[in-house]
Specification:
This protein is 24% helix and 38% strand. With 717 residues, it is of the alpha+beta class. The chain has four domains: 315 residues, Methylamine Dehydrogenase, Chain H (7 Propeller); 106 residues; 104 residues, Sirohaem synthase, central domain (Double Stranded RNA Binding Domain); 114 residues, no CATH class. Strands 38-40-41-42-39-43 form a six-stranded antiparallel sheet, covered by helices on one side. Helix 6 crosses helix 8, helix 6 packs antiparallel against helix 9 and helix 9 crosses helix 10. The longest helix is centred in the middle third of the chain and has 40 residues. The N and C termini lie far apart (69 Å). Keywords: Coiled coil. One of its GO terms (biological process) is non-motile cilium assembly. Pfam families: BBS7_GAE, BBS7_hp, BBS7_pf, Beta-prop_BBS7. This is BBS7 protein.
């Protein structure tokens, strides 16, 4: 059966955060449900739909922004009490809008994640690194996490018989707690952003948890009393956005719940289960902005199920099973068109009224601006931004989302970076020439957006060893013209990504630091050098982090404590960058460092073997691309190309794909040449020899692309 869903836009509230919209339970079996949503203006809006129009039930006054909204209630009763997290406070409202709870927690920062247990008495709250469990508003348990907490939930007590909270943490693990202690960690393939109970109840065992990651992966894991059991995992083959919300709902009506997924690029997906451990994508629909919350239920018309999504800018959009166009000339068709006509005329009237109001306000503004005492206020607007490293192509994605349409975005960088092509990007980019010497300005690019663009995605690739700041100046289409600046740090080892484990059998180079520095000081230096390291100093006396270079596949192990740090990598250039940056940071703080290193000659050969296949592939691609124009000219003159060798015929057949790939990866070959040159210079730098005069010879050998010749040159030099 083909799934046919029609889109309906119901209402727009203020900007919404992740997991701030829920459907209240229905009063009858097929009755419509009320929608409750909290926005960043601090307003809770509860409404129902009658004859296609939103009818308000209640609306609270504005205040601090709402970061989470959950439903709760006593065991075996409808879950219709509304709980919201506002700053460090939790408030409770009835379904009619009467406030019955105001609980000021002892958290010093805002609540980032909240879960209300079915019992209604247990409340699980998380700030950035701190987890607290309250029972009847009394503090029960506390846990300090090693990295930022993105979401929290608890397994259903009626099935598992004990309180088992699960934290989704930024360092790619789910932390399973027992009381105030860590029971165990479950590794997941990306930084988990959202958790949900499978089927809404944890499955038959009550132990099954669905997770979504910031790099778009989806998985199911069973949290048993002793260890995690991964059930299935779906990669992100289509390179879609990160997952922000998950729900389970039977939209098809076959008695089996489908999986509803909302992503930060506006993709809404429905997965169904052909077999228990193999979900398949059944349906998808693209919205123009990120989906903050998703729910399945009956909203627009009784008897018709639908999927309701709330987007970043506050739109509540439904995908309903109710057929919009009915065939034939029945009386029902006539009734529908009359209903439509009355709706269209009421919208026209509303639009005219708004246009009049805008004109009046504009005139009022113009008149008041003539007076000398008038001050023009800068309109506030919120920007939702995300700057993340993609493992697949070793590039950074910068996603900017604004609550109103974007006019233009100016991107400026004080370090050399490459801007890469993004398929989804419809903005027109223009580059300005910039002087890199006095102002250290390496990039100035302007993206001019088309009308109604609220989300812009850019891709950049940095060069390891060159660090600084990337700035984005965001100007939306609002009057008076105003702009916000957002800054993103490009770190010295910017292409490294945290990983759970490394291969200890590789030949490793070691850098050891000793000196009069504290644990917090060396941790701050590591945070400065490497991405994905928590800013907070870890608990305990020492810590070990593992990293992988997303471009080359080389690895890094960093272990440090008060007064000592040890860094091991199979790439000499990584060790060289660390040595330079760490010495610079220590000198800034007037700390004397004792630096020693142990260089493994075998590691150079090993790194060259890792780089070489990439080098060969890129050189071949460049050669093919250079031949395309000449081969096309031959084709035009000769009429047919049967006389050409098969390899040249295949270049002509694949010309479009080859050009597309070459365009998507500009300067890829130069980057590889640069890495090999750095490796050559760094190898001899540790021996105290300057080999910069031999670099032209090295480049000649690289053009020849002979692996053995390259290794021999490195060893002979």
């Amino acid at each position: 059966m083909e799934l046919s869903l029609a889109r309906v836009d119901y209402l727009q509230v203020g900007v919404t955060a992740q997991k701030t919209m829920r459907l209240l339970p229905a009063s009858g079996k097929k009755a419509t449900q009320k929608v409750v949503v909290g926005d960043q203006d601090g307003v809770i809006t509860c409404f129902g739909i009658k004859k296609g129009e939103a009818v308000p039930v209640f609306k609270t006054l504005p205040g601090q922004k709402i970061s989470r909204l959950e439903l709760g209630g006593a065991l075996n009763t409808p879950q219709e009490k509304i709980f919201v997290a506002i700053g460090s406070e939790v408030r409770g409202f009835t379904k009619r809008g009467k406030q019955f709870l105001s609980f000021e927690t002892n958290l010093t920062e805002s609540i980032k994640a909240m879960y209300v247990h079915i019992s209604g008495a247990d409340l699980f709250l998380c700030a950035s690194y701190i987890y607290n469990h309250y029972c009847d508003c009394k503090d029960q348990h506390y846990y300090l996490s090693g990295d930022k907490i993105n979401d929290v939930l608890c397994l259903p007590v009626d099935k598992v018989n004990c309180i088992t909270p699960v934290l989704a943490c930024q360092d790619r693990v789910l932390r399973v707690l027992q009381g105030s202690d860590l029971l165990y960690e479950a590794e997941v393939p990306g930084p988990p952003t959202v958790l949900a109970l499978n089927n809404g109840n944890g499955g038959d065992s009550g132990e099954e948890i669905l997770y979504g990651t910031s790099d778009g992966k989806l998985g199911l894991i069973q949290i048993t009393g002793s260890k995690p059991i991964p059930k299935w995992e779906i990669g992100n083959e289509k390179k879609r956005g990160g997952i922000l919300c998950i729900d389970s709902f039977d939209i098809v009506g076959d008695g089996v719940k489908e999986l509803l997924v909302g992503r930060d690029d506006g993709m809404l997906e429905i997965y169904n289960f052909e077999s228990a451990d193999d979900p398949g994508l059944r349906y998808d629909h693209a919205l123009s902005e990120s989906i903050a919350s998703i729910q399945g239920g009956c909203v627009g018309k009784d008897g018709y199920d639908e999927i309701l999504a709330s987007t970043y800018s506050g739109w509540l959009t439904g995908l309903t099973t109710e057929p919009v166009h009915r065939e034939g000339g029945s009386g029902e068709e006539l009734k529908l068109s009359q209903e439509m006509q009355s709706k269209i005329s009421s919208l026209r009237n509303e639009l005219e009224h708004l246009q009049m109001k805008v004109l009046q306000e504009r005139e009022k503004y113009q008149q008041s601006s003539q007076s000398s005492s008038a001050v023009s206020s800068v309109p506030a607007f919120s920007v939702n931004d995300k700057f993340t490293l993609n493992k697949d192509d070793a590039s950074y994605s910068l996603i900017l989302e604004v609550q109103t349409a974007i006019d233009n975005v100016l991107v400026q960088s004080d370090v050399p970076i490459d801007l890469l092509d993004v398929d989804k990007n419809s903005a027109v980019v223009s580059f300005s020439s910039c002087d890199s010497e006095p102002n250290s300005n390496f990039l100035l690019a302007t993206y001019r957006c088309q009308a109604n663009t609220t989300r812009l995605e850019l891709k950049v690739r940095s060069i390891e060893g060159q660090y600084g700041t990337l700035q984005a100046y965001v100007t939306p289409r609002i009057q008076p013209k105003t702009c916000q600046v957002h800054q993103y740090q490009i770190k010295p080892l910017s292409l490294h990504q945290r990983t759970h484990s490394i291969d200890h059998d590789r030949p490793m180079n070691t850098l050891t630091l000793k000196g009069q520095f504290s644990f917090a000081e060396i941790h701050s230096w590591v945070v400065f050098c490497l991405p994905e390291v928590p800013e907070k100093t870890p608990a305990g006396e020492s810590i070990t982090f593992y990293f992988q270079n997303t471009f080359l596949g080389t690895q890094l192990e960093s272990t440090y404590r008060k007064g000592e740090g040890c860094f091991k990598s199979d790439n000499i250039s990584t060790i060289s960058i660390l040595k330079d940056v760490l010495s610079k940071e220590a000198t800034k703080r007037k700390i004397n460092l004792n630096i020693s290193y142990d260089i493994n000659e075998e590691s150079v050969r090993h790194t060259l073997k890792l780089i070489h296949p990439k080098l060969e592939y890129q050189q071949l691609l460049a050669k093919k691309v250079h031949l395309i124009d000449a081969l096309r000219e031959l084709q035009v003159h000769e009429g047919n190309v049967d006389f050409l060798l098969p390899k040249y015929r295949s270049i002509l057949e694949e010309a479009d794909q080859l050009l597309e790939e070459y365009k998507r990866q500009p300067a890829h070959l130069e980057r590889l040449y640069g890495m090999i040159t750095d490796l050559f210079i760094d190898k001899f730098k540790f021996k105290g020899t300057n080999v910069k005069t031999k670099v032209p010879l090295l480049l000649e050998i690289l053009d020849g692309c002979d692996q053995d010749g390259l290794i021999a040159f490195f060893e002979a030099a």
